[in-house]
Specification:
- Pfam families: Arylsulfotrans.
- It comes from Mucilaginibacter ginsenosidivorax.
- GO terms for molecular function: aryl sulfotransferase activity.
- Helices cover 2% and strands 50% of the residues.
- With 465 residues, the chain is mostly beta strands.
- It starts with a strand and ends in an 11-residue tail after the last helix.
Length: 465
């Protein structure tokens, strides 16, 4: 769908030997940072669009080639708001390029609800690592209207996608260079939802599953991934009816646990694992208090061998689970079976994953000490031991008791999201803040995506706003 861009003309008979008959320019899906260019040609040819901003030393960008057609549609995604752009239509015939004369359009300002969303500040006498300016942060607004943002280190929104009736509860960037998310209503809990949406960087829907379709019957929460086969992997709420009279409960009481579910793109269940398969709830002395959300799984990821890593908020542990047998390989944390250094006194973890150095990295909510931090651990599965590679505490002013994430930007800097504090920070390995960004939305996490993963849709801009 294309909305006409204000002030943009419709061109006919543009040249290139009269091959180009008509050009229409407008907004793609009513998004101010996606400009759609529709081109009609007199015969089937290969064409693409070159475009650049009307600023000094502006970099030129090319769209992918539309091949052997008379109706061509392009989406220009590397757009800054309120900026004049020039563009050419480039035809390719028999290895020869022909460039049309230069046309122009002006992008709109961002809507008011998208202005002043992020306020970034670099610490005094600090030079940010080059890697930090070579990528964008993925941020999500969890309540309706839901918004997914890609934001640069200056706090500029470089890309966004909005949905009216639901929020983006959780969102991840996939190996297929798509955005995969859990959608949920405002009356659903923080990171829980009942829809799965996958979109590409043009904002086009690739997959949309709703609870009730196929085997998708459960409420899902906290995590959404794609495995190497392109299948959907998520956490779900698993309910078990139990006799809890021995601890003062009902004869038919309900305990809410967590599970891992793998589905194909039609919603057919291919694999299911439940915490009830490996742990008896009755061994939990606090079960009557925790039965409504017994373990509270809050992240799921893969180890380098393809097995699962799953973190739990309520018992403060991170488990490694065999992806084929469902057997728990290890439990890391208090009461677990991996020996920990005394300094590794984390309480509640989020966003557990294997970082670029092969270490188990996670955000430590630090509930007991009322101070959050970050750990990166070397785990030796054979000896059941662990060593601290990196550990730092965040300033107490940004203590973040729930949610949060921490991801390496390079070997010496980490991007940390303190969701409850509405702030994202860049720190060195000692926890010194190098950069901060206040956010208008309490994003669940802040992922970091390098430009090479976003190419050709988003690249560094030579302008700021």
């Amino acid at each position: 769908m294309m909305a006409v861009l204000t002030g943009t003309a419709v061109f006919s008979g543009c040249g290139n030997g009269q091959i180009i008959e008509q050009v229409n320019v407008g907004l793609h899906n009513n998004n101010e940072l996606k400009i759609q260019v529709d081109v009609t040609t007199s015969k089937a040819v290969d064409i693409r669009v070159k475009y650049w901003a009307d600023v000094p030393k502006s970099i030129g960008f090319y769209t992918p080639v539309s091949k052997a057609n008379t109706k061509h549609s392009f989406v220009l995604t590397n757009i800054a708001p309120d900026t004049k752009y020039f563009y050419n239509i480039v035809t390719l015939q028999n290895g020869v390029e022909k460039v049309s004369k230069t046309y122009d359009f002006k992008s709109h300002q961002l809507p008011l609800f998208l202005q002043d969303q992020f306020k970034a500040k670099t610490a005094e006498k600090t030079t940010l690592p080059a890697e930090f300016n070579d990528g964008l942060m993925l941020i999500n607004k969890r309540y309706a209207p839901g918004i997914a943002y890609l934001v640069d280190s200056w706090g500029n929104i470089r890309w966004y996608h909005m949905i009216d009736r639901v929020g983006f509860k959780v969102i991840n960037f996939t190996k297929d260079n798509t955005l995969l998310s859990i959608l949920g209503r405002n009356d659903e809990p923080t990171s829980y939802g009942s829809e799965i949406l996958e979109i590409n960087l043009l904002g086009d829907t690739l997959l949309h599953l709703k609870k009730g379709q196929g085997d998708f019957k459960q409420t899902i929460h906290h995590e959404i991934l794609k495995n190497d086969k392109g299948q959907i992997v998520t956490l779900f709420v698993d309910q078990k009816i139990m006799d809890l009279t021995c601890i003062g409960g009902a004869q038919k009481d309900t305990v809410n646990g967590d599970g891992i579910m793998v589905m194909d793109t039609k919603g057919k269940q291919l694999y299911k694992w439940s915490v009830f398969d490996v742990l008896d709830p009755l061994k939990d002395k606090k079960l009557l208090k925790t039965k409504k959300d017994w373990m509270h799984a809050n992240s799921l990821n893969y180890d380098t061998d393809g097995n699962y890593l799953m973190s739990f908020y309520n018992n403060g542990q991170i488990w490694k689970i065999d992806a084929k047998t469902g057997k728990v390989i290890y439990k890391f944390g208090k009461g677990g079976d991996i020996a920990m250094p005394a300094e590794c006194n984390f309480t509640q973890a989020h966003a557990a994953h294997i970082n670029a150095k092969g270490e188990l990295m996670f955000f430590d909510n630090g509930v007991e000490k009322h101070q959050s931090g970050v750990f990166a651990m070397k785990i030796d599965e054979q000896s059941k031991t662990s060593k601290i590679d990196t550990h730092f505490l965040l300033p107490k002013q940004i203590f973040n008791g729930r949610m949060g994430s921490a991801y390496l930007v390079n070997d010496t800097t980490t991007l940390v999201c303190c969701s409850k504090r509405h702030i994202i920070v860049l720190t060195n390995n000692k926890g010194v803040l190098q950069w901060t960004m206040e956010t208008s939305v309490p994003t669940y996490r802040a992922g970091f995506i390098k430009y090479k993963q976003l190419d050709p849709y988003l690249k560094p801009l030579s302008i700021s706003w």
